[in-house]
Amino acid sequence: MPEQPPVPIDVPAESGAEAAEVSAAVSESEPVSRTIEVPHIEDPEFLPARLLDVVPRPIAEVDLRYPEQAAGMNVSGIVTLLLYIDELGVVTDVTVLAAEPPGYFEEAAVESFKGALFAPGQRNGRPVKSRIPVEVTFEAKTDSTKSP
Fold first, then answer.
1. Does the pLDDT value for residue 145 go beyond 70?
2. Is-contact 99 79, C-beta < 8 A?
3. Pairwise CA distance, residues 93 & 56, whole Å
4. What is the mean pLDDT of the chain?
5. Which of 124, 118, 54, 70 is nearest to 92 (CA)?
6. Terminal CA-CA length for the chain
7. pLDDT tens, position by position, 57-74
8. Is the pTM of this model over 0.90?
9. What is the Cα–Cα distance from 44 to 147, expressed in whole angstroms?
């Protein structure tokens, strides 16, 4: 069962000795906790892209590093990732859904997207946690994707 929020205590504004008595009584009783209003999160789960009004988009270009092992063999490939993006646009988890060919590009793709920042997904005009699939293509003939 969720914890109930603290009940605020209304202390009337008084002057002089009466104010001192009231503050002494309050300090001797249970401590008064001050709370910060936290927005209510309607759905704590990561929503799939199909349920979003606005799909997350990268804020900056994601820096992909072409793996040295694949470069030496002149291999191209595609990795499909599932990104979990929180309501602030931070990638909190990355899962590999598929890789062709397997064993060459998965680690590079995951590492590249772990540090990426996104404009968060939205539902009903509010930022929400979301999960989106991303397909990453590694081309052997494209020098710009190969690491120096």
1. no
2. yes
3. 14
4. 78
5. 118
6. 55
7. 999 999 888 888 888 888
8. no
9. 38
